[in-house]
Amino acid sequence: MVDVLLQCQGFEASDFTGYINGGEYQQIMDCNSLLLEVEDETITTHNMIRDRYQMRFPELSSLVPQPLDYASVVKRISNTEDLSGVDLADILPPRTNLAVSVAASLTNSRPLPEDVLEATVAACDRLIALDSARDKLLQFLETRMGQIAPNLSAVVGSPVAAKLIGAAGGLEALANMPACNVQLLGARRNNLEGFSSATTQNRVGYLEQTQIVQTTPPCYTSRACRVLASKSTLAARLDFSGGDPSGNAGRKLREEIHNKIDKWQLLPPAKRVQPLPVPRSETKKRRGGRRLRKMKERYAVTEMRKLANRMQFGVPEETSLGDGLGFGYGMLGQAGCGKLCVSVAQSRLAAKLRA
């Protein structure tokens, strides 16, 4: 089926309409199956190109991980020794282009034989043709999304809905897929060539291309992707079961997503200053009884402490170090005997404890 698709590269997306209009939903699913075959063939061809070109430029596969970009670069470079005369600006971003040029000047490589080079370039042409065929299939599916998945198209848009169904392998597979996996459909591995990954967004696939995520502030993008993935899964299940062919449920789900994002951006309510409660004027009832009396006797101020806390007017206070230094004794030892005198008042609690 892939070879038949490659022969149809000269046709437009509208040329497939005559083939599909006479069929039913199964023919649309066959188109999704063809997309999966194209993906598998793309991976196989990319692995073959990488294994053959490893002899010429071993570092290129790590610098350019995407299959289409890798094939275009291999076809452009071929056996060229000096990359200063090779223009890769239309294929690679400036940062990756610089990394490829530096790696090519430092690598230890040897040119490919002519037969191996011809087979590698032919494989590059085939991979580019496969990618073009995949784009044509996706363009055709976009025109049919209103009939295949009206609710999913209302949530994420027709182009993204076609890509999600194609990447999942059909509407049934998308409906049975958990939301965390739907969020990763179409995710591409970013090669930063040693640069910082602090500002990069990983684990984001086709859902990043939706209008909802594009219009969301960057600080809420990850949360919006999670919510959008969960609502997309619900919409896909509705479409697969035929719950709402009109797409009203999908529009309601989209409105819920917008309301959530708007609510995230609202400022928190200002804190209200609450006045202190009015104190009670009546006296509190205190506990009485034998246990309270024992506790009061245990923690009561002793006579020694009372005398130490008192000072007699006109009489100098004795201190532990003399001359007013150290701890003061207050009225202790001021009875005329020259010693610390404490009146012995035995409490009933102390007598009971000694007994």
What are the salient characteristics of this protein?
355 residues, mainly alpha, 17 helices, spliceosome, Nop_dom, ribonucleoprotein, Nop_dom_sf
Kindly describe this structure:
The protein has 355 residues and is mostly helical. It has 17 helices and no strands. It is elongated, with a radius of gyration of 42 Å. About 4% of the residues have low confidence. This is U4/U6-U5 snRNP complex subunit prp31. It is found in: Nucleus. It holds the Pfam family Prp31_C. InterPro entries: Nop_C (IPR042239), Nop_dom (IPR002687), Nop_dom_sf (IPR036070), NOSIC (IPR012976), Prp31 (IPR027105), Prp31_C (IPR019175).
Number of strands: 0
C-alpha termini separation: 105 Å
Name the quaternary structure. single chain
Largest sheet: none
Family: Belongs to the PRP31 family.
Domain Nop: 148-266
Keywords: mRNA processing, mRNA splicing, Nucleus, Ribonucleoprotein, RNA-binding, Spliceosome
Subcellular location: Nucleus
What is the strand and helix layout of this fold?
Elements: H1 2-6, H2 17-21, H3 25-53, H4 60-63, H5 67-77, H6 94-106, H7 114-148, H8 150-156, H9 158-168, H10 171-175, H11 179-182, H12 211-214, H13 221-241, H14 248-264, H15 290-298, H16 303-308, H17 348-354
Helix pairs in contact: 3-5, 3-7, 5-7, 7-8, 7-9, 8-9, 8-13, 8-14, 13-14
Subcellular location: Nucleus
Protein name: U4/U6-U5 snRNP complex subunit prp31
Domain Nop: 148-266
